[in-house]
Input
Amino acid sequence: MIKIGWIGCGTHARHMLLPQLGRNGFRIAALCDRDGKALQDTASEYGVTTLTDDFADLIKTPGLDAIGMAVGPELHHVATLAALEAGLPVFMEKPPAADAAGAREIARASQKAVKPVLVGFMKRYSTGNKIAMNVLNAGQFGEVLGITGTYMTAPTYFEGETDYTGFYLHHCIHYMDLIPWFIGEDFGDMQVRSVSPQPGKLLLHLNFTTDQGKIGNIVMGTVQSRGTPMEEIRIMGDHARLHVDNVINVSMYRDPPFKAQDPKALLSPDCDTLSWTPNFTAAANEDHKGYDALLSDVAAVLRGETREVPNIEDGVRAMERLERMIKMI
Ligand SMILES: NC(=O)c1ccc[n+]([C@@H]2O[C@H](COP(=O)([O-])OP(=O)(O)OC[C@H]3O[C@@H](n4cnc5c(N)ncnc54)[C@H](O)[C@@H]3O)[C@@H](O)[C@H]2O)c1
Output
């Protein structure tokens, strides 16, 4: 069992992260939140008795193997530095800090302490994205020529606000990791355009090229309903196209012949479209958004195994891309 001290008993931790810990070999040894009710309620759910409202005290709890946290950018930064100072590895939700300089400071501290800092870019683990990436890596698709990604949300938290910092740090950060991960390259030349019909409502387009000549377009904004699917990925190859919709539905379009004039037209496994959609009626513990799969890999790394888990170096790169984008808006 990995004895973890956990900071932050908010909505995301309680709904998506903490339920995955036990089945992945973690035991919550201590909990921290400055909201007494959230702390007590979470402690009762998981039978935790070592409780504090001060993250520095939590880190001092004897016998911990790691620190986990889902709080927000400023605390991710300071609490991770404190955990590393105490010689403890960290799993943190995104974003790693409020700015790229903070993320770089954590990366330096992680190297100095020789302890991993793993970052919750779980979109890499969403079933559809994972399948698409495996298809690219398996060589079934050929060269990637371009990519388009759409990540939308609603103005809920931003209504009336002209400061979009929260949107950038909590939402856009995902595609600052996911899109370069898919194409295996960083943004090269880049342009950003934006439109804002009202305060709180923002639509922005980022287009880029890469050193190896790929092209891409990322659409992000706060002008759609959270009651609708919000994400679309389109990966363009030569006579091949991968679509991932709503992080779960995957299709690979290939190069089939026209069928209208062929009275014997069939579906060919060699060239027709391959697609996959999950069965939501199966009573399996499937977590298509990827939190369980991410935490399974995090646990493996904390046990000393090697996995490609997003880490603070990925966090630094994502924050640097984000800052570059924000400067161009
Ligand atoms: N990857 C994802 O899908 C995803 C989804 C939602 C949120 N998140 C991330 O998770 C983090 C938390 O988001 P949330 O929606 O749960 O927020 P939240 O506000 O519901 O929870 C944050 C919790 O941290 C506590 N807290 C704040 N400052 C503290 C401090 N100094 N000491 C101790 N406790 C403190 C708050 O009392 C609260 O309970 C954010 O960084 C967010 O970006 C990720």
